[in-house]
Amino acid sequence: MKTDFRFVALVSLAVPFCLLRAQDKAPRPVQSMGTESGFAVFQTKCMSCHGNPTMAGRVPDPATLRQLSPEKIYEALTTGPMKVQGQSLADGEKRMLAVFMSGRTFGSAEQGDAKNMPNDCAANPPMADPSEGARWNGWSPDVTNSRYQTAQGAGITADQVPHLKLKWAFGYPTGVSAFGQPAVAAGRVFVGSDIGYVYSLDAKTGCVYWSYQAKGNVRGGPSVGPVKGREGVKYGVFFGDAHANVYGVDAQTGQELWTKKVDDHFVARITASPKLYDGYLYVPVSSSEEFAAANLDYPCCTSRGSVVKLNASTGEQAWKTYVVPETPKPTRKNSRGVQQYAPAGASVWNSPTIDEKRHAVYFGTGDSETEPAAKMSDSVMAVDMKTGKVLWYYQAQAGDAFLGGCTGPEKTDNCPTENGPDLDIGNSPVLHSLPGGKSIVVAGTKDGKVFALDPDKKGAVVWQAKVADNPPGTPMFRLSGIVWGGAFDEKAAYYGATGGGITALQLTTGEKLWHKDLAEPGKRVNNGAAATAIAGVVFIAGTDGKLHALATGDGSEIWSYDSSRSFDTVNKVEAKGGSIASIGPTIANGMLFIGSGYGVISGNVGNVLLAFGIE
Fold first, then answer.
1. 153 in helix, strand or coil?
2. What sections of 478-615 are H helices per DSSP?
3. How far apart are CA 147 and CA 587, in angstroms?
4. Which residues neighbour 520 within 8 Å (Cβ) at sequence distance 6 or greater?
5. What share of the chain has pLDDT > 70, as a percent?
6. Of 507 and 97, which is predicted with more confidence?
7. By the 8 A CB rule, do 222 and 138 touch?
8. Is the pLDDT of residue 207 over 90?
9. Which pLDDT belongs to residue 10?
10. What residues contact residue 531 under an 8 Å CB cut-off, 6+ apart?
């Protein structure tokens, strides 16, 4: 109740000052719109007051508001102290704002708790060592981010894939975006959700061992590993949330061990999987700032992408490396008199890659938000594993200063003079060893370019290739390229494209081996979700909700499943599938797991985790 009273007191003071600029619009269901739109509503309607330094102490700042539940924020805008200001917002805008600021969906606090589910596991026996047996930790079963599961780890052969059948489905109560990458260890599935809960489920049956409620939604795949110095605790589960908090919880019971906020910016967030290696977590930090910072009431821009190293047993920070090393400084005031800042941007929204031999960590970076564009934006970076010192970087696109809402007549003087092409490297770089022992680091861009770098020559280019053609003048929103990344086996890389289809590239030269279109004639499907490979098979999904299994030799289809429908779930939650546009399948010990319903920015929403096994 202390938080509630504080909020009412602060927000009551805000009433005389915060006059929201808005016109009533026809309400739309919040489920049909991306939750990122909630930030645009906040920037456009609220930031001039709640983000104004001169209002400090009189109104709650954005960081304070983000600690509240969506119900409390919505209540303030509809029947509470912000009712007057809320009248200028459509109901859908209020709900989007509440969901974004809280990082959780309505009703999730109670309905998402495993204690209120009918499928609790009859017992919770001591976990086996997660380092033994089949497992898939975080974004990939290996630290090189190949998204390749060995034959022993997969427990599924190419001949068995056509016999995959749905074994169980689990519904996220009140969820609208099943974007959590499942992890598998010791016969259990660990998965985060857009409702702010992380679940531990039995891999074979889907019964629930426990749930843990984070302070915001959890997109990245959890990692499971040993914990030291905690009496009675052997193994921990580690993950990050939409408020840039990182957590360590007991893998056996779900009890919290520690939390650490790794960035204080009010829209800093963790969208990708922290990488667990040798007792440390390497945590990527992103932000939501660029989505609507073109709004003239917003002091653009001050967020900086980074990677943070934490002790997995304690949460203690070892180092933090910013993509933009300089602290943003005041530059000019815009036409509304709001102070502007630079440099900024270059979020990290992919899971870092570990190079054990060179003691290095690799990751991709996003675009800049202000001019001039940062020198390490749109790059692959290599940093020293022990110190975080930058070893080298390769910039795939220079001068990419980009803000959402900066095209056409809506462009404001917050915007870069020339809005960039938005060519973030959002996919994890993949470290691969070629025949003869030479190593390459491979990544791709949103316009379909793939490049291999030499880590022994400070990122010198080994080869370049394309998986998609974009004629000159192609609008940004129609670009076909790479977003979430590929899967690698011994000979080839397999990349799905946002414009549709999947392409296999030979790893020594970048030569195109084959391409497979997956959409029906005349239709466009985004196949930019992450690929997953096992021996002889690559899996790729799309915004149409279809999951495909293709032969790695020629791309011929050997199995498919349409997840865009309703499901009966083990926890009796109404659930449906939708677009699969970010995560790829997790495969371990004869089972395949994938969430269906990616509704963050666009696509068909859904709230289901699907588990497949051999018939």
1. helix
2. none
3. 10
4. none
5. 85
6. 507
7. yes
8. yes
9. 29
10. 147, 485, 486, 487, 494, 495, 496, 502, 538, 539, 540, 584
Read off the pLDDT band of 217 (50, 70, 90): very high
Contact 139, 582 (CB under 8 A): no
Residues present in the chain in total: 615
pLDDT tens digits for range 35-83: 555 656 666 667 667 766 665 555 566 665 665 667 767 656 765 556 5
Going 417 to 419 to 421 to 427, the CA torsion angle's sign is positive
- What count of other Cβ atoms lies within 10 Å of the Cβ of residue 230? 14
- What pLDDT is attached to residue 106? 72
Report whether pLDDT(95) > 50. yes
Please give the average per-residue pLDDT across 589-594, as a whole number: 98
The neighbour count for residue 318, using CB atoms within 10 Å, is 15
What is the predicted pLDDT for the residue at 5? 29
Q: What is the pLDDT of residue 52?
A: 63
- Residue 475 is given by DSSP the state -
Q: What is the pLDDT of residues 575-586, one digit of tens each?
A: 999 999 999 999
DSSP 392-414: EEEESSSS-B--TT-SGGG--TT
- For 198-239, the DSSP string reads EEEEETTT--EEEEEE-SS---SPPEEEE--S-TT--EEEEE
Sign of CA dihedral 227, 233, 237, 242: negative
Triad 315, 316, 318: Cα angle to 5°: 125
Taking 70 as the threshold, does the pLDDT of residue 8 lie above it? no
Q: Which helix (H) or strand (E) holds 94?
A: helix 91-102
Question: Amino acid identity of 163?
Answer: H
CA angle at 48 for the pair 42 and 54, rounded to the nearest 5°: 135
Whether 90 has a pLDDT exceeding 60, the answer reads yes
Put residue 145 in one of left, alpha, beta given phi > 0 → left and psi -120 to 50 → alpha: left
Q: How far is CA 115 from the centre of its chain?
A: 27
Phi, psi of 2 (to 5 degrees): -60, -40
C-alpha dist (Å) from residue 236 to 102, 187, 280, 317, 566 = 26, 15, 12, 17, 34
Q: Which helix (H) or strand (E) holds 63?
A: helix 62-65
245 forms beta bridges with 261
Q: Tell me which of 164-173, 333-342, 399-408, 568-577 is least confident.
A: 399-408
31 touches 176 (CB < 8 A): yes
- 285 three-class SS: strand
Task: Tell me the longest C-alpha to C-alpha distance in the chain.
Answer: 71
State the Cα–Cα distance between residues 298 and 289, nearest whole angstrom.
10
pLDDT computed for residue 614 by the predictor: 95
Spell out the residues 6+ positions from residue 604 whose beta carbon is closer than 8 angstroms to its own: 543, 545, 564, 578, 579, 597
Does residue 460 sit in helix, strand or coil? Answer: strand
Whether pTM exceeds 0.85: yes
Rounded Cα gap, residues 34 and 38, in angstroms? 8
Bridge partners of residue 211, in order along the sequence: 199
Q: Whose CA is closest to 581, among 609, 612, 546? A: 546
